[in-house]
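Need residues for this backbone.
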């Protein structure tokens, strides 16, 4: 998906060429079929080859993935997810990072987010 978002569209061969440690061509094709079946990508015919494109923008896909992770691993709790991210990332967060996060929390509070 990252390659498709970066390039906009690509064939299986182009995806394979772009990958740093690529699996087999068959594995790439299988993954593309799965992604297409799930509705994450679509294909267009370009001569004898298929060219694959994402079906949604990267930001929308990120939100969808986060919702899935929240439901799957955190029982829908954003608080638990953020606590885990902070625990995992605490040694790598600068004071500026923490200030930006605090501002986001303040903005969410001002917007009424998180109120019963």
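Answer:
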């Amino acid at each position: 998906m990252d390659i498709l978002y970066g390039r906009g569209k690509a064939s299986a061969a182009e995806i394979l060429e772009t990958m740093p440690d690529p699996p087999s061509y068959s594995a790439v094709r299988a993954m593309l079929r799965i992604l297409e079946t799930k509705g994450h990508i679509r294909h267009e015919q370009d001569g004898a080859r298929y060219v694959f494109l994402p079906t949604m923008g990267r930001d929308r896909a990120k939100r969808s993935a986060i919702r899935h992770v929240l439901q799957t691993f955190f029982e829908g709790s954003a608080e638990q997810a953020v606590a885990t991210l902070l625990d995992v990332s605490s040694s790598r967060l600068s004071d500026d990072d923490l200030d930006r996060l605090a501002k986001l929390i303040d903005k969410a509070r001002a917007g009424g987010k998180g109120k019963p």
